[in-house]
Amino acid sequence: MSAHKIIIAIDGYSSCGKSTLAQQMAKKLGYSYIDSGAMYRAITLYFIRNNIDLKNHDEILVALGNIHLTFEVDEMTGTSEMHLNDENVERQIREMLVADKVSDVAAIKEVRSFAVAQQKRMGKKKGIVMDGRDIGTTVFPDAELKIFLTADPAVRVQRRYEELFKTDPHISLEEVRHNLEIRDYIDTSRAESPLRKADDAIVLDNTNLTREEQLDIALEWVADRATNKSLIPDPSPKGKGGIA
User: Fold this and answer.
1) For range 166-191, the mean pLDDT
2) What DSSP state is assigned to residue 233?
3) Residues 102, 44 contacting (CB under 8 angstroms)
4) Residue 101, SS3?
5) Beta-bridge mates of residue 87
6) Alpha helix locations (H) across the chain?
7) How many CB atoms lie within 10 A of CB 74?
8) I want to staple 231 with a disulfide (CB 3.0 to 4.6 A). Which of 57, 193, 217, 226 is the partner?
9) What was the pLDDT predicted at 154?
10) Hey, which residues does 7 pair with through a beta bridge?
11) Taking the model in full, what pTM does it have?
12) CA-based nearest residue to 150, from 141, 142, 159
């Protein structure tokens, strides 16, 4: 019996580790990984570079018409990286300058329509893991598995701080906390596709879980959703496909 590929949608707040879990699952399952957040970050980067007025409808539409987004796999690391108009911008889109503005840009109706249309096309063949904030509610409401990832706010702040500190040692914990609070408010209160848990999503609180533990849990859910349970490796340490 052939493996039955499904769509896995992972949503949740900033700095909950959505991308980490999604990449781990995609690698284990042999699926494609799509970081929807990177798409919005790349659009934000373009808007910043070109001084796009976020209140000017016509200017936004023209800008979107000049944006070409692709994910390309880095042969050295094996990870999927964001390219904006053929430029690798993976590092630039992770900087605080972009983080401060991405929620405002992502709240714009035209921007969301632009990104969601591309995301839906990517999922037509299934066998993908996509993470974001409206994947299970707007992009793939019929996804076979929807996970809503969450963690204690203090843990999220610390994780984000440690990530940013690597490239910006002058960043403060308070700056990171303020940024996450603002992003949470915008993401949950915006008119277009706000962040919320889909009714049929499973909540995964990883506050006290290691990356390996949360992966094991998620893979068990995939096995439960997939028609053919041989789709995934045995998640137990003793299994052939076990996690090291």
Assistant:
1) 92
2) -
3) yes
4) coil
5) 84
6) 18-29, 36-49, 57-65, 96-99, 102-106, 109-122, 153-165, 173-189, 211-225
7) 11
8) 226
9) 96
10) 128
11) 0.79
12) 159
Per the CB < 8 A criterion, the answer to whether 188 and 195 are in contact is yes
Question: Mutual orientation of helices 57-65 and 36-49 as an angle, nearest 10°?
Answer: 110
At 68-105, the pLDDT tens digits run 999 887 777 777 889 999 999 999 999 989 999 999 99
Say if residues 221 and 156 touch (Cβ distance below 8 Å).
Answer: no
Structure tokens at 172: 């403060």
| Domains (range + CATH), the chain | 7-226 (3.40.50.300)
What angle do the packed helices 109-122 and 57-65 form, to 10 degrees? 30
The rounded percent of the chain whose pLDDT value lies above 70 is 91
Q: Which of 14, 18, 11 is nearest to 184 (CA)?
A: 14
Q: Which of 14, 13, 120, 32 is nearest to 22 (CA)?
A: 32
Structural tokens at position 231: 């789709």
Terminal-to-terminal C-alpha distance of the chain: 27
Q: In the numeric block, which tokens belong to residue 126?
A: 């299934």
Q: Which residues pair with 129 in a beta bridge?
A: 8, 33
Reference 11, options 141, 185, 127, 100; nearest CA is 141
What does the DSSP assignment read for 152-170? -HHHHHHHHHHHHHTT-TT
What pLDDT does residue 67 have?
97
Sign of CA dihedral 54, 59, 60, 66: negative
Window from 73-77, 172-176, 211-215 with minimum mean pLDDT:
73-77
